[in-house]
Known about the structure:
alpha+beta; 5 helices
Amino acid sequence: xxxxxxxxxxxxxxxxxxxxxxxxxxxxxxxxxxxxxxxxxxxxxxxxxxxxxxxxxxxxxxxxxxxxxxxxxxxxxxxxxxxxxxxxxxxxxxxxxxxxxxxxxxxxxxxxxxxxxxxxxxxxxxxxxxxxxxxxxxxxxxxxxxxxxxxxxxxxxxxxxxxxxxxxxxxxxxxxxxxxxxxxxxxxxxxxxxxxxxxxxxxxxxxxxxxxxxxxxxxxxxxxxxxxxxxxxxxxxxxxxxxxxxxxxxxxxxxxxxxxxxxxxxxxxxxxxxxxxxxxxxxxxxxxxxxxxxxxxx
Length: 298
């Protein structure tokens, strides 16, 4: 009897253990670790009217503009969002700005123009404000980036670096996502970043142009010419034979902005031209023909 009870207890225990290990463990949802050391947030006014808003943020050092961003966003009555994230899609500029915040001699100031009203504050104050907003888990508005932050010249490297930054930020945004709405939000910000990048360079561009230089001009007499327009009638003109030198160039611009200029060909050509006499006067018969048959001397 004891053997049967012990056997039954072991059977129940085995069944319980089997069921326990047959159920997959539920992983805890991923958490986003946020550090105030690599973000910049600007707190919105507590009482902000509902509707469309425009915002321009400029980082300046000794009156020189470092980075400028323009945003637009909408708020509704009872809006809980309290902050706008700055330089979110331009991490290189953000890192450079944050490094300046640790230098007491940098004297970087931040100008914020919100709906036409300007506020200027030191960069250090913005960093402190960011820490407070993060600790309070302040919600962010879904601001649209109207213009990209200042980028280098339109070179291949500038385009590629910007696109790489967009992808890196997208992955950083979407990796912790646990629902589709979060991924959609990351995709929205990626699109804003990508279409704000400077255009890429597919290869060198070529521009052909010519220059003309007057070599000589020889007077060939004066005569009476017919002029239908603008001074209708017959008029006395001086006639010159001039020699003109032409240089044809080809300018090639590389993706890094460097330019090379090549002299392709050179030649001289001669032509007659007309100019009115110093004492402009009419004449009776156009022995010289039509004045429009000749170019004007210059």
